[in-house]
Amino acid sequence: MKGFVGGVLSMGVLSTIVILLMLEGKEEVAIQQERHIVNQRLNDAEFDHDFTTAWNDEKDNTEYLDGKKAEIEALKERQKAFDEEFDQAFSRVKSDAQALRAELEKQSNEKSN
Questions:
Q1: 39 with 79: CB under 8 angstroms?
Q2: Residue 38: how many CB atoms within 10 A of its CB?
Q3: 72 near 41, Cβ under 8 Å?
Q4: What is the DSSP string of 10-52?
Q5: Predicted pLDDT of residue 69
Q6: Confidence at residue 88, expressed as pLDDT on a 0 to 100 scale
Q7: How many CB atoms lie within 10 A of CB 75?
Q8: 53 Cβ neighbours under 8 A, 6+ residues apart
Q9: CATH: 2.60.40, 1.10.1760, 1.10.287, 3.30.70. Which one for 2-112?
Q10: Average pLDDT per block of 10 residues along the chain, 113 residues long
Q11: CA 17, CA 23: separation in Å to the nearest integer?
């Protein structure tokens, strides 16, 4: 009976860790998707700005070009924030994987004793 209870308790800890990692993985995917959207919008805004500059008279489109420049700067800031958040999430995943390995080794050592 002692082995059964120990197995149930260890599975509870492992299940909790696995669920936590799954939720963080879901968060990471959402960050990657938003990061991709921001990159695409940035590319679109830069293209629109460059196209308008190349093919139209800048004097007639000053307001539009200023708006595009402001949009590009805002998107670059969001891109930088997402890059930092992605780097933090990646380091969290690495540390969580190390913690999971340590917990698994601890559980296997307890079972062998």
A1: yes
A2: 20
A3: no
A4: HHHHHHHHHHHHHHHHHHHHHHHHHHHHHHHHHHHHHHHHHHH
A5: 94
A6: 81
A7: 19
A8: 65
A9: 1.10.287
A10: 52 64 68 88 94 84 91 94 81 77 78 68
A11: 10
Please report which helix (H) or strand (E) contains residue 70, including its range: helix 62-112
The reported pLDDT for the residue numbered 45 is 95
72/98 Cα distance (integer angstroms): 39
Domain spans in the chain, listed from the N-terminal domain onward? 2-112
Q: How far is CA 72 from CA 10, 33, 38, 58, 91, in A?
A: 51, 19, 10, 17, 29
Cα–Cα nearest to 12, from 101, 113, 103: 103
Task: Quote the pTM value.
Answer: 0.60
